[in-house]
Design goal:
- The protein is α/β, with parallel strands linked by helices.
- The chain has a single domain (about 10-280), classed as Divalent-metal-dependent TIM barrel enzymes (TIM Barrel, Alpha-Beta Barrel).
- It has 10 helices and 8 strands.
- It has helices at about 25-35, 50-60, 65-75, 85-95, 100-120, 145-155, 170, 180-185, 220-230, 260-280, and strands at about 10-15, 20-25, 125-130, 160-165, 190-195, 195-200, 205-210, 240.
- Helix 1 crosses helix 2 (about 50-60), helix 8 (about 180-185) runs parallel beside helix 9 (about 220-230) and helix 9 (about 220-230) crosses helix 10.
- The relative contact order is 0.12.
């Protein structure tokens, strides 16, 4: 994922249960892009209706809300403790100005091809995480969004050391991704499993749902990987990716999505589901 890791607009969305979760709001992404970032070519990436919706939403934001939106997108990235100022972000975007999907994929494949023989010689299984969200954003090309994107990477370099981190949350944001079918297709080269579920609203927005709720069919995906693990000497490691902030989490500092109790809740649910599937075999 060039420049940004996962990108969300709300890091503490309040739920009725008293928990907080993460949310992606497409209209606020457009408002940021058009009226805060002021990316020169942004207007080409949105429909007239989306531009008008972003304009109206931006007009309702006070200075504190606009600052929070900037902070949520540019700062506190989960992959590091660093973020960007708006000026730094604009400069970084310019470095990708002439790079399209094909060129970015070619660069990725050149990198993998160079290190793959060494990784394979030591028995190292490399994995790549899908884009989150799995579509282009701020003009940046995203190249691991769908099954066809994954096929292009793995067919070019078919060694099983060139593997996948199968993230049900990232792939599951797209309604055209059949998660169970993708799990079956890429099971043999999945070396890390991120289990989480998002809830879509049909308009491009989504939020992090309970691990066994939402749009991701976690039971069917887990069945595939339980069968795959039965073929392996060492099972695929998995984690309950992301989680609500709840109970003591609400007073404990943590990077967004990486709460303690909320993720333990997800782990308990997934482990219970795993035991149930195994008991039915």
């Amino acid at each position: 994922m060039p420049i940004l890791y996962w990108t969300l607009t709300y890091l503490d969305l309040q739920l009725a249960e008293g928990y907080t979760t993460l949310r992606f709001d497409k209209t606020e992404i457009a408002a940021f892009d058009l009226f805060l970032l002021e990316r020169p070519s942004a207007i080409q990436d949105y429909s007239d209706a989306e531009i008008e919706g972003a304009k109206q939403r931006f007009a309702t934001m006070d200075a504190a809300k606009r600052q929070q939106l900037m902070d949520n997108i540019l700062k506190g990235l989960p992959g590091s403790e660093e973020g960007y100022t708006m000026e730094e972000f604009r400069a970084m975007l310019q470095t990708y100005g002439a790079i399209d999907h094909h060129q970015l994929r070619d660069h990725l494949l050149l990198f993998i091809e160079e290190i793959l023989p060494v990784a394979a010689s030591y028995g190292i299984k490399m994995v790549i995480h899908p884009d989150d969200p799995p579509f282009d954003i701020f003009g940046l090309p995203r190249i691991l969004r769908t099954a066809s994107d994954a096929r292009a990477i793995f067919s070019a370099l078919p060694s099983l050391s060139n593997g996948l981190c199968f993230c049900t949350g990232s792939f599951g944001v797209r309604p055209d991704n059949d998660l169970a079918a993708m799990a079956a297709e890429f099971a043999d080269r999945t070396h890390f499993l991120h289990l989480r579920s998002t809830q879509r609203d049909g308009e491009g927005n989504f939020y992090e749902a309970n691990h066994l709720d939402g749009d991701a069919n976690i039971p069917e995906v887990l069945k595939v990987f339980i069968e795959e693990n039965q073929k392996r000497a060492v099972p695929i490691p998995f984690r309950p990716d992301h989680g609500y902030r709840m109970l003591d989490d609400l007073s404990r500092p943590a990077n967004p999505g990486y709460s303690l109790i909320g993720r333990l809740k997800g782990l308990a649910e997934i482990r219970g589901l795993e035991r149930g599937i195994l008991a039915m075999k």
